[in-house]
Amino acid sequence: MQGCHLVIENLTLARGPRVLLRKLSFEVRSGEMLLLTGANGTGKSSLLRALMGLTPLQAARFIWTEPAGSAREVTPLELRSFCLAQGHAAGVKSELTALENLRMVAALDQPPGPAAGSDQGVGAAPEPALEQALARVGLERQRHIETRRLSQGQKQRLQLARFALACRGPHRPIWLMDEPSAALDTQGSALLQTLLGEHLARGGAAIVATHLPLQSPVGHTRHLRLDEAPLSPAEPAWTP
Amino acid sequence: MDALTALRWALRRDLMIALRRKADALQVLGFFVLAAALFPLAIGPQREWLQRIGPGAIWVCALLAVLLALPRLFESDHADGTLESMLASGQPLAGLMAGKMLAAWLVSGAPLVVVSPVLALSFDLPGELMPLLMLSLLLGTPVLLCIGAIASALTLGLKGGSTLVTLLCLPLYVPVLVFGAGALESSQAGLSAQAHLALLAAGMLLTAVASPFVAALALRISVE
Q1: With an 8 Å Cβ cutoff, is A92 touching chain B?
Q2: Collapsing DSSP states into helix, strand and coil, what is residue B128?
Q3: What does residue B4 show for φ and ψ, rounded to 5 degrees?
Q4: Residues of chain A contacting residue B80, judged by C-beta atoms under 8 Å apart
Q5: Spatial separation of the C-alpha atoms in residues A158 and A138, rounded to whole Å
Q6: Interface pTM (ipTM) of the complex?
Q7: Angle, in degrees to the nearest 10, between helices B194-223 and B93-104
């Protein structure tokens, strides 16, 4: 996974008639964390949602360098298969137990396309790994409890378990996280930092949107302030 | 994941969730049974009338019952963010959709087929008609669900979406209703129901193949 590199050029993002980001260019490479900061409404979440492939971008070029490969341009659709995304909502099914939720989402987090191994069925991640990931985020006693009985913070810890699992397994080198620490306690935030550190140490990269400063910068941190050049309200709508 | 694994994943997941929320499936079934049972009560025990309206009434009730099941198809996944993780995962979305639709049919469509002979009894339909009734519903309810899935994917996140789904779906349901109830009527008249059933089966194959892709596309648009 060493040596991946994602360059995003000339990204323009509009929500309705309002242009949030214009011709933004940035890059992130293995071992690096890109912190998106900015006031409310400057487009942190919108940018992440666009990178996750949930909303269309008005313009952007993605240039991706595989680990030990050459640079090539990729579509937003392809970009999705390198990214492990955590959205704003908890992404947890309240009828299923913590363990079932993790098992389900772990299968979803496998790289897209035909499974590499022949034994990769519906529950691709091995059970001990799931249990271990839950134990790591402190949910081992809650693993058989339906998640509707869990608190908001515990649900966010369950999300972290997904990333803890990703730290062990193969694959998705870029983590996209939207406010990962919003409902976490200090212990949880510390765990988040550790996980991010491990991921970066393995040569992964992360793009994280947050209001809160992450306590101790892990790995090499780059900052991208989205509100540095505020657009005037009179700015005309973006046209292709 | 390839498309087939994605289908199995979504099928298993939705069936597991349905098992934990049995009330949802029972609501649909309960509505079907109660609504269809109202007709004999309202019309009275005139055997000829009941036999005449029976197939149509059962079919209309099945259609409305399927409509009742549609809003849940994507709404809860949308609300808790799991739908977004499916979209963002880059896994074959049409496969996931196909799995979800199959699960929804097994949970809300198949029970209707199973209990329909009981309702046929309340209309005093002759026993020979029961297999045909079940067959027509077996072929017809998947069509209803597939069309409805597209409509509910399109209206996801809109206010008053479920009313809109009803308005979008009902005109498209007309052919299914005509051929479904028509199969039974022509059989009652001593004709062959084969043409009706063949058309229903063709409709089922077409919608089963096409609708996962269309619903996937519609979801991408409405999640924006």
Answers
A1: yes
A2: coil
A3: -70, -40
A4: 89-94
A5: 9
A6: 0.82
A7: 130
Token pair recorded at residue B113: 């087929």
pTM, rounded to two decimals: 0.88
B99 contact A CB<8A? no
Using DSSP, state whether A68 is helix, strand or coil. Answer: coil
Each domain of chain B, given as residue ranges in start order, spans 3-223
Strands A59-65 and A71-74 turn out to be antiparallel
- CA-to-CA distance for A11 and A23, rounded, in angstroms? 5
Spell out which residues of chain A touch residue B88, defining contact as CB-CB under 8 Å: 52-54, 80, 83, 85, 87, 176
Give the Cβ contact number of residue A219 at 10 Å. 18
pLDDT in tens, chain A (240 residues): 467 888 888 888 888 788 888 888 888 888 888 888 888 778 888 888 888 888 888 888 888 887 777 788 888 778 888 888 887 777 888 888 988 988 888 888 887 777 654 444 444 668 888 888 888 888 888 888 888 888 888 888 888 888 888 887 667 888 898 888 777 888 888 888 888 888 888 888 888 888 766 655 566 777 888 776 544 444 555 554
